[in-house]
Amino acid sequence: MASNEDIHIWIERLLKGDEEAFEFIFNLTSQRVYETVFAIVKNRHDTNEIVNEIYFQLWKSISTYDQSRPFLFWLNGIVYK
Questions:
Q1: Domains, the chain, ranges and CATH?
Q2: Membrane-spanning regions, if any (predicted)?
Q3: What percentage of residues in the chain have a pLDDT greater than 70?
Q4: How far apart are CA 53 and CA 7, in angstroms?
């Protein structure tokens, strides 16, 4: 996995609306997010819908992310909401 510093470069791009940055972050984190959600709901269809919603929320709320904190902790906050 990329370092927190590397992720911050992509987050800066995402904050400017860069779809390639969103795709990079999705590809970097989606497997972990999917596995976490599936462990909770234990249903593939529901998991897919929830994961889609998580990344929609990430896109909408990335401006609230505090870059002094680890990105994955922030993302996990979205997952568990």
A1: 4-80 (1.10.1740.10)
A2: none
A3: 95
A4: 21
Residue bearing tokens 């992509």: 10
CA dist., res. 39 & res. 43, Å (int): 9
Give the span between the Cα atoms of 50 and 65, in whole angstroms: 20
Q: Which amino acid, residue 8?
A: H
Q: Write the DSSP symbol of residue 69.
A: S
- Whose CA is closest to 14, among 30, 27, 25, 29? 25
Instruction: Give residue 81's pLDDT.
Output: 86
**Contact in structure between 20 and 13 (CB atoms under 8 Å):** yes
pLDDT at 1: 59
- pLDDT tens digits for range 1-33: 566 678 999 999 999 999 999 999 999 999 999
- Residue type at position 81: K
